[in-house]
Amino acid sequence: MIRLIEVSKSYKVGRGRKHVLRDTTLTFERRNIAVIGQNGAGKSTLLRLIAGAERPDRGHILTEGRVSWPLGFAGGFNASTTGIDNTRFISRIYGQDTDRILDFVRDFSELGAFFAMPVATYSSGMRARLAFAISMAISFDWYLVDEITEVGDDRFKEKCRAAFKEKLVDARILMVSHSVSTLRSYCDMAALVHDGTITLYDDIEKGIAAHKQLMGLARSPGSTAA
Amino acid sequence: MSAPSTDIAARRGSPLAIMARVVAALLLRETRVRFGRAQIGYLWAIIEPLGGVLVLAFAFQLIGRVPDVGQSLLLFLAIGMLGFSLQRRLTVQLGNAFDANKALLHFPVVKRIDTLIARSILEIATSLLSMMIIIAGLVLIEGAPPPARLDIFVAGIAALALLGFGLGTLNAILNAHFRSWRHIEGLISRPLFLMSGVFFTPVMLPSAVSDILVWNPVLHGIEWLRYGYYEGYRPDFISAEYLIGWGLTTTLAGLAAERFLPPGET
C-alpha cells in the first residue's frame, strides 16, 4: 500500500509553475497500476516522489515495503567503474548479499567479459541489460517502472518478461508507458494524472478511455499537446 | 531471497541502519574510484602534502630563513601544511560531492548528506594518516620533538575538520544552486594559503597585517596546532571559540540549507 497524504508538488517551468499534485490524498492498493496522463502531466514526477528520489513541497508519502528506484533510466551507473563494481555498490546500498546478486546479474545480463569492464565501454543496450538484471536481482515489493525499453533480441526480451512476471507474483507494479498494450499486459487498474489531481480507475480500460477523451479535448484547435 | 512480506520492515532496517549501509558503500566506492585499484594510489594521497612541505622548505633554505617556532624547519612547515590541507581538502571534496555522485543520487536510498559524510570520513582518515606518517617520519629521521600536548593538538585537528565540513557543505549547496559559485570560490580561496599561517606565525608580522589576518579562522586552527605541538609556544591571540564558532555556524547553515532548500540543479 502506498499512501499520499495532502501532497503538493510543483516545479518551475519557464516563468510559471507547473503543479503536478495539489493537496492530493489517496491510497494505492496493492494492485498493478498503470500511471497515465498527457506528456508533462507529472507521471515521472509522481514515480520519483513515491521512490523518494524527490521530496514533496508539502505533505507525506507513506510506503509499505521496499520500493524500487524508477526503473528504465539510463543513469545510475558510475561509468568509470566496472559492471561488477556498480552491481556491488547497488547491492550494498540495498543491504543485499553481494555474492548472490553478482552471480545472478552476471548470469542474467549475459555481458560476458564486459561485466568486468568499465561501464563507459558499454553500448546503450548493454547498459540497459545490466540495469534490468540488477533490478531483477533485488526483491522489491513495488516496482516503479518509467517507460522501460525492451532490449536485446527476442529471446532476451522474452527472458525479461518472464523474470518480471515471476517477480509480480509477490510484488506489484506502478508503470508509466506510452505503449497501451504494455500497460494492458501488466496492469489491471489505472491512475490518471491530470492538472494537479490523480483519478483512480478500478478498471484499466475506463482509465484509458478517460485519458483518450482528455487527449481529444487537448487536441482541440489551438493546442498542440501530443 | 524471495520476499515474504512479513519481514519487510526488518529487511529495510531503521533509517540510521540504511544510512550506515549507504555511507559504507559510498566509502568503498569512493576509495576505489579516487585512488584506483592499486594501494600505491592511496600512498600518493598520503604523501602529497609532503611535496608542498619540501618545496617550501627548499625555498626557505635558499633565503636562509629559520622556523618561527622550534628548531626544525620541516616540522614547522609540515604542521602548517597538514593543518591547512585537512581543512582545504574537505572544503573542496565536499564541494564536489553532489556532482561527482550525481549518477548514484538517482537511487532514492542514497541521500545527499550520505555523500558528504562518506567524503568527510575518507578525507579525514587520509589526512590523519598523512599527519601521522609525516610527523613520525620527522621525529624519527630529523629528531624533531613529538607533540607536547597531544590532547590540544588533536582538539585543534577536530576544530579544523569541523570548519572544513561546514565550509564544504556550504560549498556543495552553493555549487548546486549557483552556476558561477565554483569560480567565485576559486577566487576567494586562492589567497587563503598565503593568509593562513602555513609558513609564518602572525606574531612575526607587522600588526597592520596581523590585525587583518586574525579574522581568518584557518589561521587560528594552524596556530592552535602549533600551540598543542610546541612546548612553551603560547600565541597570545588565538581563540578556540572563534574557530569553533565558524565551524558550528557554517555546519549548521550548510545542513539547514541541505535539508530545506530544494535540490537545485544536481
Structural class of chain A: alpha/beta
Helix content bin of chain A: 25-40%
At CATH level 2, the architecture of the largest domain in chain A is 3-Layer(aba) Sandwich
Radius of gyration of chain B: 21 Å
Q: Give the termini distance of chain A in whole angstroms.
A: 32 Å
How many helical stretches of chain B?
A: 12
Number of distinct beta strands of chain B: 0
Largest interface: A-B, 34 and 27 residues
pLDDT averaged residue by residue of chain A = 87
Strand content of chain B: under 5%
Class based on secondary structure composition and strand pairing of chain B: mainly alpha
CATH class category name of the largest domain in chain A: Alpha Beta
Number of helices of chain A: 7
Query: Total strand count of chain A, please?
Result: 8
Shape call of chain B: globular
Shape descriptor of chain A reads globular
**Biggest β-sheet of chain B: count, sense, barrel?**
none
What proportion of the residues of chain B is helical, as a percent range? over 70%
Sequence of secondary-structure elements of chain A: EEEHEHHHEHEHEEH
Protein described:
The complex is a heterodimer of chains A (226) and B (266). Chain A is α/β, with parallel strands linked by helices. Chain A folds into two domains: 2-68 and 178-218, 3-Layer(aba) Sandwich (Rossmann fold), CATH 3.40.50.300; 83-143 and 151-174, no CATH class. Helices cover 36% and strands 25% of the residues of chain A. Chain A has helices at 43-51, 83-93, 98-109, 124-137, 154-167, 180-186, 204-218; strands spanning 2-13, 16-28, 33-36, 58-63, 142-146, 172-176, 189-194, 197-201. Chain A has a five-stranded mixed sheet with strand order 5-6-3-7-8, with helices on both faces. The longest helix of chain A has 15 residues, at 204-218. The relative contact order of chain A is 0.18. Chain B is an all-alpha fold and 266 residues long. Chain B has one domain. Helices cover 72% and strands 0% of the residues of chain B. Chain B contains twelve helices and no strands. The radius of gyration of chain B is 21 Å and the shape is globular. The two termini of chain B are 34 Å apart.
